[in-house]
Every structure is written in structure tokens, then in C-alpha cells.
Predict the 3D structure of the following.
Amino acid sequence: MFNRRGAIAVMVALMSGALAAQDASSVINNASRAMGSDKLKTIEFSGSGADFALGQGQNPGPYPRFLNKTYTRVINYETPATQMTRVRLQGENPPHGGGNQPLRGENPQNQTIIVNASTPWVQQLDIWMTPHGFLRAAAANHATVKSQTMGGKTYNVVSFMGQNKAMVNGYINDQNLVEKVETWVDNPMFGDMLVEYLYGLYKDVGGVKFPTSIVQRQGGFSTLELTVADVKPNAPADVRPAQGGGGGQAPAQPPSEKLAEGIYLIKGAYASLAVDFKDYIVVIEAPNSEERGLFVIEEAKRLIPNKPIRYLVNTHTHFDHASGLRPFVAEGAIVITHEANRLFLEKVFSAPHTLNPDTLSRANKAARFETMTTKKVLTDGNQVIELHQQQGTGHHPGIIFAYLPKQKILMEADGYNANIPANSPTPNPVGPYAANLVENVRRLNLDIDRIISIHMPPDDRKVTLQEMLKAVGQPGGS
């Protein structure tokens, strides 16, 4: 009797699974026919709107806004491939936050993705998170369906597992139109980060229904808001890879440089500084990524052997300057940052990273902080590091810079970015963040021989105070 009941239970479960799969298939087919996806091979759409720089705003705050004077995306669902071209303008005056602000004039951008066996899933999302791309992907990936009420409306929610082992959910309304697609991707700061694509105001173009309102969100804030003006179904979509992108091995890390006794510059597109104190190491800045953070830890210990890294100084929480922090917390380092950053960083350090467990997830350590307001001094009686808040800047409310008075070295982030040629003419208008940094240097009466811009110049030159003064049109520049 037991075996018979067990066999019946197994049959019921199998039948239920088959029925669910069949229901999902019916929902996908109905939506595909209603939207014209079943006969759609390519799509080109264009319009205007705004994009927002992920992780470059306040804590946490909306991301900085840039105008998209024109925006065009071409998608070939069969290759598959996508190409985006747009012209961007400065969207906030005065500027607030990062994202290479302020933009001067019209800035063209071009991004091309051709999917192959090694293409990361996150780079494919602009194909498979479109309404028609989602239906194609769901049909090919053993999707399931359930009914869900949201905002007073009932949706068929079709779901499948993405290549990164995160669910992809599409919300299909009673008109068989895809209103929303969501998934989760790994982010070095947010961990398992929610990504949402919202679609509305559909119109029919040659039997294909396409939204004229597109909103993309990451981490709870908009990254794209687009009004679509033109749609071309099945237009020729000759998407070609960008020239010169041959791949190959990653470039080797550049060598470190000894600036003075016990002071080491760890070079790269983003610089870090390792300072030898009596019983420990202080590292200033952990930028970019977990990989870069791990490299900086290894390099600091190579340069200054047999000492622990006790402190990591974080200049501010923009993602390109803080995405290497988590390995330092796993290392046991105390994070020194402005008090304004603490609550945000506490959330970052406790964020789950289940999609791609990182060093801190495996170490399972709690973050330790020492915070500051306007000034903090680290010293062992020999080495001295002064940390100062960069007051009055619109870049970030909790940004700090480091000054080493004995060596006359200033290390700063996103005030003066020295990644332009030294002999360049003074920008017009002058960069407000650099002008503000000069104001702070003069306010504190700092005697500076060398400036370390965390965004290092590609020619690896020594950046002087005179160069920065020239860049803001101030007396003393040469």
C-alpha cells in the first residue's frame, strides 16, 4: 500500500510539473503572438532621455543624471548581439557626484556586445531583459509561471534561471504585454543587486508591439529613463565588434614606487598608498574591485613585510573608490572614513553575496570603523598622516584627502584628476571639483611638493601643485 501511494504521489508531482511547464509555455506563446515576438528577428529603437551613473551619487541617494540627446539601440536576437550609441550632455548644474562630471559639450558613446560562450551574463542583459528578448529566453530555459497581484493588478509572472544562477522574472499583464523584467546580479558593493527593467505605453509598429517608455533601475535607483520615438522591427542589424578589442591576457600590474622612507605608491589606473608605521601598515584607498583590493593587500605586505595592515583609509564611497574595501575588512583592517559614510558602508559590508561569494563572505567578519569629521591625524611619532575633509565640494559630502607633512605629499580622489596631459590649456569652464580642492589646500595652508591623484595620469608623471593651480586658472600655476 505504501509503495502504491508513493508511486501515485510521484505521478501527481510529475503531472503537476508538466502542467506548470505547459502553462508557462502557453503564457509565453500568447504573449509572443500578442507582441509580435514570434516573427521578430531584430529590433532598432531610438529616442531621448537620461542616464544615471551607478554608485556615483550621495549615500545612498539617486545617481548623477546625464542627458541623452539621442539614444539608439540595435538588437539582433538571432546572433545574438546588441549595439548602443548615444550622445550625452551634462544633466546637473552645478554638478553633484561622480561619473566624470562635468561633461563639456556633446559626448558620444558606443557600446557593442556580441554574445559568445565566454560573454558574462550581466553583459547580455540588455538583450534578454527587453520584452521580446525575455520571451525568447524564457521559452528556451524551462520557465515556470505563477499568478501575482501587484499594485492592484494581476500578472502572470514567468520565471527562469539566468546563467549566473539568479532568477529572471517577467511580469505579463492581462493584455499579454511584458510590463517588467527583473533579476539579480553580483555587485562588489551591493552584493546580490536587484536589476529592473520597466516598460509602458506600448504602441504597434508593423504588427510588433514595443514600449515607448523604458526605465532601468539598479540597486533601487534609476540608471536609464528613455522615451522611445522610433521603432524599426526587423531592420538590418549589422552589429560589429569594436575595432581593436582583441581580448588576450589582462595587462600586468605596473610596478610600485618608493616615494620616501616607508612611503610606497602602488600604481595603476587607480592608485593606493602604503605607509610603514612602527608596528603596522596604513593603506590609503581600496578602489575598483575585489581583485584590485586583494592585489593592494598583497603588494603592501610585500613592500612592508612582517606587519599587519591595521588601517584602510577610504576617501569616499563612490563605487570606483570603494569596491576593493571588502577584502580589507576580511583581512581585519579598521576602515577609516568620514562619519557621513559609516551607515552606508555598514550596509555594504553586511550585504549578502550569494551569487558570487567573495573574501568577506567567506571570512564572515564584522567591519570595524574609526570615523572622522573635519580632521584626523595618524602618527607613531615618526610617520604622520593628516586626513582632512574636502569641505564645500559637490562631489561627495563625506570625501577626505590625505596629507603627509614630512614628505609634502597630498593624496586626493576626484578633486584634480591628473589624467589629462600636463600642458593642457585651462578648461573653460574650470572644473568645480578641482577649484574646490585648491580652496581647501589654501584654507589649510598645505605645503605641497607632489600630488597623488588616485586617478593616476597615464604618463606616470609627477603631478605638482603648480600643475593643479594652472588647471583651475589660479596664480602660481605654470
